[in-house]
Structure formats: structure tokens, C-alpha cells
Amino acid sequence: MLLVLETNGSLLHLFSSATEAESHVEAIDIENGEYEFCDDTGQRFIGEVVAPVTTFRAGGFRLRPDGAPDRAVVASFLSRARSLERQCGGVRTLDDLRKTLVA
After folding, report:
1. Percent above pLDDT 90 for the chain
2. Which of 13, 24, 82, 92 is most buried, judging by how many CB atoms fall within 10 Å of its CB?
3. pTM to 2 decimals?
């Protein structure tokens, strides 16, 4: 499961994979640093722009792993998340997510 945290607003979105997240997030938002990404193991991901945003093109990006997994990253996302905006895999609330990740 991929956790996507909006840096402005602390809204958390869940996706089944990095590929699914890439299809929902816009490259302009990656360029503006509007999201942080990690998976449920604490593996951080960085949004890497592969096609720039222009007046006539939406651009493109991909997510790539960055560093080693660290469970503290997951804890940081959970402590900063104000609400769960996108559900995934039966997780409907932040409390559900906390229970799932602690188990």
C-alpha cells in the first residue's frame, strides 16, 4: 500500500501501488512539491519528473524508491495526517490504517 500525504493540508491518500498513485497525481503537483510518498514498510518514494509540464502538455513523472525502509516514516505520515481522503484495501479511516500498520 502506498501512502501519499499532501504537504499542505495533511490529507492522506492510499493507493494499492506506486503505479496507481502515478495515474492519479499530476506532474505539476510533483514539480511543486505538494506530496510526500511512502509505502507501508516505510520505503520513501520520490516523484521524478520525466516530461516537463508545459502550456500544452500535462507532463509526466514516475515514483522511485529513495533510501532504505524506515518504519518511523510511516509513523510520521500517520502523526501528520489530518484525515483520510482516499481509501484502499478496506481501510476506511485513519484509525483503521493505524490498526492495519501496527498489526
Report:
1. 87
2. 13
3. 0.93
